[in-house]
Design a protein that fits this description.
The protein is mainly beta. The chain is about 10% helix and about 35% strand. The protein contains 1 helix and 7 strands; from the N terminus they run E-E-E-H-E-E-E-E. It has one helix spanning about 40-45, and strands spanning about 1-5, 15, 30-35, 60, 65-70, 85, 100. The longest helix has 8 residues, at about 40-45.
Protein backbone atom coordinates (compact mmCIF):
# COMPACT_ATOMS: atom_id res chain seq x y z
CA UNK A 1 0.00 0.00 0.00
CA UNK A 2 1.06 3.60 -0.47
CA UNK A 3 0.64 6.18 2.28
CA UNK A 4 1.48 9.82 3.01
CA UNK A 5 3.82 9.75 6.02
CA UNK A 6 6.10 11.87 8.18
CA UNK A 7 9.33 10.48 9.64
CA UNK A 8 9.61 13.03 12.45
CA UNK A 9 7.76 16.08 13.71
CA UNK A 10 8.27 19.15 11.54
CA UNK A 11 9.41 17.23 8.44
CA UNK A 12 7.59 17.43 5.11
CA UNK A 13 5.23 14.53 4.34
CA UNK A 14 6.23 12.03 1.67
CA UNK A 15 4.51 9.26 -0.27
CA UNK A 16 5.88 5.84 0.66
CA UNK A 17 5.11 2.17 0.12
CA UNK A 18 4.31 0.41 3.41
CA UNK A 19 3.33 -3.16 4.33
CA UNK A 20 -0.38 -3.90 3.95
CA UNK A 21 -1.97 -3.66 7.44
CA UNK A 22 -3.82 -6.64 8.90
CA UNK A 23 -6.74 -5.89 11.24
CA UNK A 24 -6.16 -7.07 14.79
CA UNK A 25 -8.82 -8.25 17.23
CA UNK A 26 -11.75 -5.82 17.28
CA UNK A 27 -10.41 -3.83 14.29
CA UNK A 28 -11.74 -3.25 10.77
CA UNK A 29 -9.60 -2.64 7.67
CA UNK A 30 -11.11 -0.19 5.16
CA UNK A 31 -9.85 0.05 1.57
CA UNK A 32 -9.69 3.84 1.28
CA UNK A 33 -11.49 5.51 -1.65
CA UNK A 34 -11.18 9.13 -0.46
CA UNK A 35 -9.27 10.83 2.35
CA UNK A 36 -8.61 14.33 3.63
CA UNK A 37 -5.63 16.02 5.19
CA UNK A 38 -7.01 18.52 7.66
CA UNK A 39 -6.09 20.68 10.66
CA UNK A 40 -5.58 17.66 12.92
CA UNK A 41 -3.00 16.27 10.49
CA UNK A 42 -1.23 19.65 10.31
CA UNK A 43 -1.02 19.82 14.12
CA UNK A 44 0.11 16.20 14.33
CA UNK A 45 2.87 16.70 11.73
CA UNK A 46 4.07 19.88 13.45
CA UNK A 47 4.41 18.05 16.79
CA UNK A 48 1.69 20.08 18.53
CA UNK A 49 0.02 16.85 19.75
CA UNK A 50 3.25 15.33 21.10
CA UNK A 51 2.59 13.83 24.53
CA UNK A 52 -1.19 13.72 23.98
CA UNK A 53 -1.20 10.58 21.80
CA UNK A 54 1.26 7.74 21.40
CA UNK A 55 3.26 8.28 18.20
CA UNK A 56 5.31 5.74 16.27
CA UNK A 57 7.17 6.86 13.16
CA UNK A 58 6.50 6.81 10.33
CA UNK A 59 3.15 8.46 11.12
CA UNK A 60 0.55 8.03 8.39
CA UNK A 61 -1.49 11.20 7.84
CA UNK A 62 -5.21 11.27 7.06
CA UNK A 63 -7.72 11.03 9.90
CA UNK A 64 -10.96 11.24 7.94
CA UNK A 65 -11.66 8.83 5.10
CA UNK A 66 -14.28 6.78 3.29
CA UNK A 67 -14.07 3.46 1.51
CA UNK A 68 -15.11 -0.19 1.55
CA UNK A 69 -14.60 -2.64 4.41
CA UNK A 70 -11.88 -5.01 3.16
CA UNK A 71 -11.36 -7.25 6.21
CA UNK A 72 -12.38 -7.57 9.85
CA UNK A 73 -10.33 -8.74 12.80
CA UNK A 74 -11.40 -11.49 15.14
CA UNK A 75 -14.29 -10.48 17.38
CA UNK A 76 -14.80 -7.21 15.52
CA UNK A 77 -18.21 -5.61 16.03
CA UNK A 78 -17.68 -3.81 12.71
CA UNK A 79 -19.22 -4.25 9.30
CA UNK A 80 -18.58 -7.35 7.18
CA UNK A 81 -16.34 -7.01 4.09
CA UNK A 82 -17.72 -5.16 1.03
CA UNK A 83 -19.81 -2.71 3.10
CA UNK A 84 -19.26 1.01 2.40
CA UNK A 85 -17.86 2.85 5.39
CA UNK A 86 -16.67 6.24 6.55
CA UNK A 87 -14.30 6.87 9.42
CA UNK A 88 -13.75 10.04 11.39
CA UNK A 89 -11.37 8.71 14.02
CA UNK A 90 -8.81 5.97 14.34
CA UNK A 91 -6.04 4.85 16.65
CA UNK A 92 -3.14 7.29 16.16
CA UNK A 93 -0.66 4.42 15.79
CA UNK A 94 -2.60 2.67 12.97
CA UNK A 95 -2.17 3.74 9.32
CA UNK A 96 -4.76 5.68 7.35
CA UNK A 97 -4.66 7.96 4.27
CA UNK A 98 -3.31 5.01 2.38
CA UNK A 99 -4.04 3.56 -1.03
CA UNK A 100 -3.76 -0.11 -1.90
CA UNK A 101 -3.99 -1.92 -5.22
CA UNK A 102 -3.53 -5.47 -6.45
CA UNK A 103 -1.67 -5.87 -9.73
Amino acid sequence: MYAVVIDDFGLAPSLRELPEPVPGPGEVKVRVAASSVNGFDRLLAAGALRGIFEHRFPIVLGKDFAGMVAAVGEGSPGSPPAIRSSVWWRRPTRPTAAASANT
